[in-house]
């Protein structure tokens, strides 16, 4: 087991997030670990023992090498999708499994759910800045079914629906955006179609309508250039082959002969289903593949009941929750805990903190056009510690949105969270 210095530093950060259940900035890793060490009353031997246990988990995540093949496959996909931001929670899962607090079956189900979540969000171009806060919230221990907790949290944090996913997939230039993810997509589609073992290391992503169009392509396909610009890098125009160079930019009638003899089901299906290869063929195939990908990267259909119980606990300020009807209990800002009982008091507490800790940024916020209404048209005035009067009569969702925006402007969004009663 070899881990270089950069990876080890990231391991320590992820380990600390998993253990402290709080966001940890890279530059603060050492100071946070030192604090954690003393809080746990560790001696050197105990600290090294715990680090060794967790670094073994971490190595298993990096190399997708646990004893469970299904979990390894899901982790391998997560690694390809470049979402190691999930590692603190996966460390928690592996530790729970070793301690027999959770079964491998449940761990595998959760891992599949997480890969579906991040894959769909990638296709739908959902910003990933809220993932850190979501992961931190998942590291909290809860006396509930772990899978159900994860399902509820993900469904409440912008988990794209089948309709949204299919619509975006049709025109998402996956090859141009992420070549590795394009190949991953084709591999999981192929695995769903065949029981044969395919050596994907020997296959390449093939553009059916080639990136560089020959004169023959332009003659055979109406509006070939515009079709290629719009759909050339989408999933509908991609397949897997071991003969990429041989086929090059041959016209479809010639490529079709190669596809018909391929051991790749995805390619054989093209030759069987499509007489010509044009815009209509690409779109039709993309729709069919989108249906299959919806089943592979499945979205749970959990009935949202007991919503108050769902939301209890800590949430990052960027979490996309509907908090209508909920009540705040605590506001956490850069490891400082403040007891609050109303959404209005949460605004006052937050702006007081910004004023006391970063008065320069606070003054800039007052001149920000999108926030100036906070300090004008006052209906329910509250006085801050600096004497400024601020409006607080807003809905719960508006308060969270304001704090999220200001947190991002101050560069502390990963360090701001709140706890609901």
User: Roughly how many Å is the radius of gyration?
Assistant: 25 Å
Shape: globular
End-to-end separation in angstroms reads: 44 Å
Number of domains: 3
Q: What report would you give on this structure?
A:
With 421 residues, the chain is of the alpha+beta class. The chain has three domains: 5-155, no CATH class; 167-296, no CATH class; 314-420, no CATH class. It is 56% helix and 8% strand. It is built from 21 helices and eight strands. It has helices at residues 5-20, 29-39, 44-63, 69-80, 87-98, 104-123, 131-138, 146-155, 162-171, 174-177, 179-193, 215-220, 224-231, 244-247, 252-260, 265-273, 279-296, 307-311, 343-357, 359-366, 396-410; strands spanning 204-207, 238-241, 313-316, 328-333, 336-339, 381-383, 389-391, 416-420. The strands form three sheets. It has a four-stranded antiparallel beta sheet. Strand 4 and strand 5 form a beta hairpin. Helix 4 runs parallel beside helix 6 (104-123) and helix 9 (162-171) runs antiparallel to helix 17. The radius of gyration is 25 Å and the shape is globular. The two termini are 44 Å apart.
Summarize the structure.
This protein is α+β, with helices and mostly antiparallel strands and 421 residues long. It has 21 helices and eight strands.
What is the strand and helix layout of this fold?
Layout: H1 5-20, H2 29-39, H3 44-63, H4 69-80, H5 87-98, H6 104-123, H7 131-138, H8 146-155, H9 162-171, H10 174-177, H11 179-193, E1 204-207, H12 215-220, H13 224-231, E2 238-241, H14 244-247, H15 252-260, H16 265-273, H17 279-296, H18 307-311, E3 313-316, E4 328-333, E5 336-339, H19 343-357, H20 359-366, E6 381-383, E7 389-391, H21 396-410, E8 416-420
Antiparallel strand pairs: 1-2, 3-8, 4-5, 4-8, 6-7
Helix pairs in contact: 1-2, 1-3, 1-5, 3-4, 3-5, 4-6, 6-8, 9-17, 11-17, 15-16, 19-20, 19-21
